[in-house]
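FW: tagging you since you asked about this chain on Friday. Here's the raw sequence from the shared folder, copied in full. Didn't touch anything.
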Amino acid sequence: MASTICGWCGDRTHMKMVLEPYELPMAAWPRALNDRPVWMAAFRCSNENCLRLSIGWTVLYQVRATSEAKVKLPQAALEWEPLRIRRPSFPDVPAEIAATASEAHACLSIGAARGAVALARAVVEAAAKAKGITVNGIVGKIDALRDGGIISALTADASHQIREDGNSIAHGDIGDEPISQDDAEAILEFMDALLDEVFQRPAKLQRLKERHEERKQGHGAGSGSVPQGPGRSGGDLSVSGEVH
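HL: got it, structure written out here
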């Protein structure tokens, strides 16, 4: 079985081959693979709540027989269709910044590492602007976030890493430092941490504080009244009759 994240249900699952492998005609091979045999097959998701079919394909060298491909294809590192496009939401983050951060994750989920990093850089700069920081340059903005106590020194260092990697793309130095999928994933984790620290965590703490204040006010509303028992109505407290 092949293991992957199912493009339908989004779960990490095992894929079981359900149809015979098929060698794609040379005319339909991806342009970058025009001298190599491409094999594909239909696989079924093992998640009982899904069970839908996906196509797995890869290049198999020196394979000509279907029976041979049937053994090798599930063991290979396959490309999958449909892809799972991840678009996480970012509550409490300004809408345009949240949408850009979500788009960065969508880029990463389809293997567009450069696009993901370039968008992450834009998110860092936009986050600073949203907090009223208007100094020129992204370096100054990150340092101002740190100096103002909005982010920690550790988050500032991570933000500078996003900036440096994003700069190489934004300035056209695409071939200087290739960005791997793992590198891009780490950079987006930094981005998520920045958004949490700047927007989401303060908003969550503010809501907790407001709920606490509401509970205190609710409890205090009845705390000033004194229960009225028999003979304590607040009227005439004189005792009838004489005490002997």
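FW: The radius of gyration is 31 Å.
HL: agreed, and The longest strand covers residues 38-45.
FW: great, closing this out.
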